[in-house]
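Reopening: structure tokens for the LLGJG24Q complex, inputs below.
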Amino acid sequence: MALPIEDYALIGDRGTAALVGKDGSIDWLCLPRFDSPACFAALLGTEEHGRWLLAPADEVVSTSRRYVDGTALLETTFTTSTGEVVLLDVMPTNDSRADVVRRLTCTRGSVRIRHDWVVRTDYGRVRPWVSRERAHGHEVVVAVAGPDKFVLRGPRLPHGHGGHHSDEFDLSEGDELTFSTTWVQSWRDVPEPMGFDERIDATTDQQRAWSARSPEDVPHADQVRRSLLTLLLMTHAETGGIVAAPTTSLPEDFGGERNWDYRFCWLRDAALTLESLLGAGYDEEALEWRRWLLRAVAGDPADLQIMYTVDGGRQLPELELPHLPGYAGSTPVRIGNGAVSQRQNDVLGEVMIALELAREAGLTETRNSWSLQRALVDELAEHWDEPDNGLWEIRGPQRHFTHSRLMVWVAFDRGVKAIEEHGLEGPLERWRDLRDRVREEILDKGYDVERGTFTQHYDTSEVDAALLNIPLVGFLPGDDPRVLGTIDAVMADLDADGLLLRYRTETGVDGLSGDEHPFLACSFWLVSALAAAGRRDEAGALMDRLCGLTNDVGLLSEEYDADHGRMAGNFPQAFSHLALVQAALALR
Ligand SMILES: OC[C@H]1O[C@H](O[C@H]2O[C@H](CO)[C@@H](O)[C@H](O)[C@H]2O)[C@H](O)[C@@H](O)[C@@H]1O
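Re-run output (same inputs, fresh job):
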């Protein structure tokens, strides 16, 4: 049985990432890439679906965790009645290998340790063939199945029985044991052992140097640094693609069907991530992502997808995995994402904002980068008034979502500014006209005069938390009465214990059964909107509360179940962390 979501922490090497539980068990890991099939999938099932445990065998009196300062190296300290042991979990970066390194150090007394290495490939479905071999002068345990080979190294290797490789041993004060699991393609030889100290030190230095550039002049500066590092871990180093989260099917509704795969690069989430990184002064990531975008989107602009695989691939069919019981019984477990084929008219607006910020940060347009933007805006000009699935990727009937139209306005607006302010070439008059037409339409059809609020779509008086973006993208000033009315309506209609729902699911707009919890990014948008409205005290108080919802190591999932004080949805989620950074910048 998996732990509460907030009891996990993330480690990663910017190729993939793992969730380490407070109990010392790695319950989620896909190797070698974020969207590869998991080899440890206990998160969505049981230990029989794969996990790697290193923890005290006896009762643990207390557990504390922290990331080593300025890094994503995780330290878990277990105290038992006989002593204390520290577990360091690291995925070394920048070495073109896929390894997880786990180091146990006994810091007091003596502690009996339990080791359980259970590899299952194909998301917990396949038991690999496991054997002991000698390689490079040492004994190793090797698990092979299909395309994958996993190599366990360590000073004391566990023994096989019943599909597990297990062991128990005592550590005394001063003892230090380091284990590693390395992935290679099954047809390759067992790779050379790595220099653990050297790789741990190099990873520490790289991550510290990166996070040292995080802004100090913002509220909750330490949390902002953690959020930025978390976004970095979700950025695929080799390709520049940014995943929405490293997990699939952590439920939005415990026991329900709202379980989705986030291990892909959404143009929306990635563009917003970039906006946060640029806002925090991380400029060079913009170049990498723009290169990713140019490759992924290359071709006919009419074929634009709203999400891609991390390497820019277009195929991510949604499948169900019936062999997995799901987190807290939430089924189906899904891989791939059917929203890939949806029409979401907001996406280009988000991309145009990120690219505009990159331009302002000094990233000059190349012939290709501007031609691409121009082609995409021209394509939007043909379809901007069509209904869509909106940014929440609803699976009910398409609508004329006000937020989607807002972002259409943004796409034309940023296109116009690129021509007017940066001297780029394009159909200025046409885009200006369209921008003005969309604006008039939004003010006419997306605003409910009686309620004094913008509405979720053109045929409703319901609101949507995404409307909080109206002042944030510059459509209206933050203190415009229509914005103030919208903030009040959103707060009144979507409040759940002081946090914000995305929209009211009971209207049936999303076409799904069940309910969901407050969506954390929306509450951070409220912070930014309140700040823009001049309501800084309220904004600051909400920011304090939201930062207090992070888990013990500063991570946030997609949603928060305030009734039970637990996290819900995929974890950690870029959307929540990027919105946290943006809110902190808004309060700067
Ligand atoms: O709520 C239904 C939809 O939920 C997912 O979408 C959400 O996550 C995306 C990635 O972070 C985000 O871009 C989107 O705005 C969110 O609504 C899921 O991916 C969809 O398939 C699903 O319909």
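The CA atoms of residues 455 and 461 lie 6 Å apart. The chain has two domains: 5-189, 227-586. Marking as resolved unless the reporter disagrees.
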